[in-house]
Amino acid sequence: MVTFWGGKRKTLVTAQLHYLFMSSTWILPDDLAVPDFPADHPGPGAPVPQHWSKCFGCGDDQPTGLGMEFTTGEGLEVIGRFEVAKRYQGGPGFIHGGILMTAFDEAQGMACNAALRSAVVTAHLGIDFARPIPLGAVLELRSRVEGTVRRKVYTRSEARIVDGPLADPDVVVGSSYGLFIVVGHEHFEKGKDFVDGMPTGDQDISAV
Ligand SMILES: CCCCCCCC(=O)SCCNC(=O)CCNC(=O)[C@H](O)C(C)(C)COP(=O)(O)OP(=O)(O)OC[C@H]1O[C@@H](n2cnc3c(N)ncnc32)[C@H](O)[C@@H]1OP(=O)(O)O
């Protein structure tokens, strides 16, 4: 339809389509199963431990990483927070898009882990960048498992600036949908010769 019009008008139509499609459609499968609520769930506001101390997203022994910290939210939601450090700059003054993607990856992986108590890896991740996010902003990412099909775990997450520059907890500045796959310890066996660091606790499910 767009190429049929051509010329100046083509540019106009393309721009309008771009605007319409700013928020991606994520179609969930019909046979989605909602996971059972874990019997030992601590309730909202409990800290969710890092899964691996050297993880770039959540590890406390990874000085160049995001240092995300997580708590449980309502239901199966987990809430992750981090401050956009100056070293995460992309365009002048704003976060690099890949950093936001990393944060969404981590946040949705943690939601899988909290809901299923299983190790997962990311198979597919989609993002809508809705607003520029300034350096110094404190981002809150709320993430949840929407359901599972066999080993496939479908997740969703939204980010808001809750403190610092341009803070407005009512505005979604980015959102993400993901497909994670439940894996066994054999997945991480393949990396055992390359591990940097030692597991520091029971929560280090990704370390061998
Ligand atoms: C607490 C944890 C927080 C962690 C946060 C950070 C997470 C990460 O960043 S992990 C690092 C990035 N990801 C990776 O390195 C994964 C690399 N990929 C792989 O190892 C493999 O492709 C893996 C494990 C995902 C799937 O392989 P395998 O185990 O053989 O499963 P496979 O049989 O191919 O697929 C299982 C199902 O998933 C589907 N699937 C797999 N990949 C995809 C994909 N990219 N898109 C859509 N569907 C997919 C398959 O179609 C299949 O579906 P179905 O059940 O309907 O037949």
From TrEMBL:
PANTHER family: ACYL-COENZYME A THIOESTERASE THEM4. This is Acyl-coenzyme A thioesterase THEM4. Its main location: membrane. It catalyses: octanoyl-CoA + H2O = octanoate + CoA + H(+); (5Z,8Z,11Z,14Z)-eicosatetraenoyl-CoA + H2O = (5Z,8Z,11Z,14Z)-eicosatetraenoate + CoA + H(+); (9Z)-octadecenoyl-CoA + H2O = (9Z)-octadecenoate + CoA + H(+); decanoyl-CoA + H2O = decanoate + CoA + H(+). InterPro entries: HotDog_dom_sf, THEM4/THEM5_acyl-CoA_thioest, Thioestr_dom. Pfam families: 4HBT. Its EC number is 3.1.2.2. GO terms for molecular function: hydrolase activity. It is found in: Cell projection, Ruffle membrane; Cytoplasm; Membrane.
